[in-house]
Amino acid sequence: NYVELNQYIKTLNASGYDVSEYIVDMRAKFSYPFVSLVMVIIGFPFALKSPRSGAAMGVGISVFIGLTYWIVLQLGISLGHAHILPPTLAAWISHIMFASAGFYLILSTRT
């Protein structure tokens, strides 16, 4: 869990090991619960669209957005493990990107 991982990071850091991969995992563990909130922000504009577009189209778009979100989230974590992105940014980059897109869609949706 989060507490054990934090203690493990402190122990390894005191021993002189590189703990950046574990820090990415700890930040990701904290950021995962926000996936639901971001998905609501993204889905809200699609719920405001006209009902004539069909349920199958809505389900297809939802599945595509969900898979894309998961891929970007895992890509960010992988870039953090490879020391390309800082740990905090690696865990939160997908949330920032998709929440920004969701807010843009909300503001640009005509009701």
Write the layout of secondary structure elements.
Blueprint: H1 2-15, H2 20-31, H3 34-48, H4 55-81, H5 87-108
Helix pairs in contact: 1-2, 2-5, 3-5, 4-5
- Give the termini distance in whole angstroms: 44 Å
Report helical residue fraction: over 70%
Subunit arrangement of the protein: single chain
C-alpha-based Rg, rounded:
18 Å
Q: How many E strands?
A: 0
Total helices: the number is: 5
Q: How would the global form be characterised?
A: elongated
Query: Element order, helices and strands?
Result: HHHHH
Short description:
This protein has five helices and no strands. It has helices spanning 2-15, 20-31, 34-48, 55-81, 87-108.
Describe this protein's structure.
By secondary structure, this protein is mostly helical. Helix content is 81%, strand content 0%. The N and C termini lie far apart (44 Å).
Question: Keyphrases for this structure?
Answer:
111 residues, mainly alpha
